[in-house]
Amino acid sequence: MKIAVVGAGYVGLVTGVCLADMGHYVTCIDINENKVERMKNGVSPIYEPGLTELLKKNLEVGRLVFTSDHRKGFKEVEVIFIAVGTPQNDDGSADISYVEDVAKTIAFCAESDTIIVTKSTVPVGTNDRLQALINLHKANDITIEIVSNPEFLREGSAVNDTFYADRIVIGSNSEKATKKMKEIYQDFNIPIYLTDIRSAEMIKYASNAFLATKISFINEIANICERVGADVEKVAVGMGLDQRIGTSFLKAGIGYGGSCFPKDTKALIQIAGNVAYDFELLKGVVNVNSKQQTILVDKLKKKFHSLHGKRLAILGLAFKPNTDDLREAASLMVIDELVKEGAEVICYDPIAMENAKQTIIHPQIRFAASVEDAVKDSEAALILTEWDEIKSIDLKVFTHMKTPFVLDGRNCYSLEQVKAAGFEYHSIGRSAVNLQSENLLI
Ligand SMILES: NC(=O)c1ccc[n+]([C@@H]2O[C@H](COP(=O)([O-])OP(=O)(O)OC[C@H]3O[C@@H](n4cnc5c(N)ncnc54)[C@H](O)[C@@H]3O)[C@@H](O)[C@H]2O)c1
Ligand SMILES: O=c1ccn([C@@H]2O[C@H](COP(=O)(O)OP(=O)(O)O[C@H]3O[C@H](CO)[C@@H](O)[C@H](O)[C@H]3O)[C@@H](O)[C@H]2O)c(=O)[nH]1
């Protein structure tokens, strides 16, 4: 089938490449001409395992085309996916102006019957609004129908998530559009959950809010574990063995970041507020997360009287491993706090360094070429992303620090490993390892 995808960001590019790989003819349209040029040459603008290979393969066989010309991209296509951003407004609500702009462009350009598929995460009722907008602007003799098809991929495993998703959600009020959607996804062999448009829109927000709730819940349990002498890692395993609870998203740490959970939880609070419902639980989840993101700074302040002039190493900048995305990463909040306290910050990340150099600019911040360079002469090391490279380093590297003091926000090492290596170590929801007594401190 001939398909257009508007917005070649994370979701649009991965969707476009995977649809092409499944045999469809896909045109990805993005207003960023620089990005389009790179993609035309087989260069992915994002770091995403497995994506470049598929991008090159599908460009070569001619199933994938990139353009910044919407009218050209819409020529002869039956289905248009919208995958542009829905960032956060100042009040936390979702900004749907990019999605509305695309809907209007489609209405102006469409020359024959078209199905629009909204992949972007949009507040409940947005697709109905888009349909009304399109009906207002489209030519009279054509039909444009809209379908909600929220995206559930995770950054860092986006390609795999697309091919092996647990479900595909399709919200549609039209039999013709539903049939087309089933055809598009036929070869993916993934269960399809068909529902109405508003429920599909809500499934996306509810899923992200629920996962964020699990994370804030385990982080609060972790904070209590530290105070009562329990180990959150063991608690999470024990809880997860109950199949009603499950093991996933119970990894305690320094909170959730990224381009989705922070903005989608806040947007859902707004969606509820707009219908006079106070989503108290979710407000708690958001507050817990914001405190959790800087919990290591609190621990650091307990250790040192003042952070002024202290050299502190940051290991890991991306909001999670296997991505170079820094959006809403805990590292940004931590670094901001440390800079305010007058510390000298030296950062290292295996992949997100180039993005970081353009995002985190301050005279007190420098970048190191390796973990070794970052920790050398530092008075504390803060681990913020659990990259394999960081998890698998020889722990001796920390013993060469000016003060061998490690704050691990992602519980990368076992307490036994750390005790054997010999440095002071504080993690999340577990006893601290003290250097002098070699005892575990509560
Ligand atoms: N990033 C994720 O992991 C993820 C996962 C699931 C859902 N989502 C949702 O998907 C949507 C897209 O997210 P993203 O992270 O891919 O966004 P992104 O910011 O990475 O990409 C958006 C792209 O759209 C382009 N664009 C903007 N206006 C355009 C227009 N009029 N025509 C053509 N291109 C245009 C931009 O240049 C940009 O390349 C959001 O609603 C997000 O909440 C994201
Ligand atoms: O047990 C866990 C799991 C995750 N995280 C953190 O949560 C954030 C988000 O992680 P993850 O969900 O793996 O990555 P995203 O790419 O943000 O994916 C989420 O957001 C996407 C955008 O909406 C959805 O499509 C996905 O289904 C949803 O998992 C990261 O900072 C992780 O460090 C934890 O702290 N503990």
Give an account of the 3D structure.
It is a single chain. This protein folds into three domains: 2-195, Rossmann fold (3-Layer(aba) Sandwich), CATH 3.40.50.720; 203-291, N-(1-d-carboxylethyl)-l-norvaline Dehydrogenase, domain 2; 293-441, 3-Layer(aba) Sandwich (Rossmann fold). The strands form four sheets. Strands 3-2-1-4-5-6 form a six-stranded parallel sheet, with helices on both faces. The chain is built from 19 helices and 16 strands. Helix content is 43%, strand content 14%. By secondary structure, it is α/β, with parallel strands linked by helices. Residues 437-442 have low confidence and may be disordered. It is elongated and about 75 Å long. The protein binds nicotinamide-adenine-dinucleotide and uridine-5'-diphosphate-glucose.
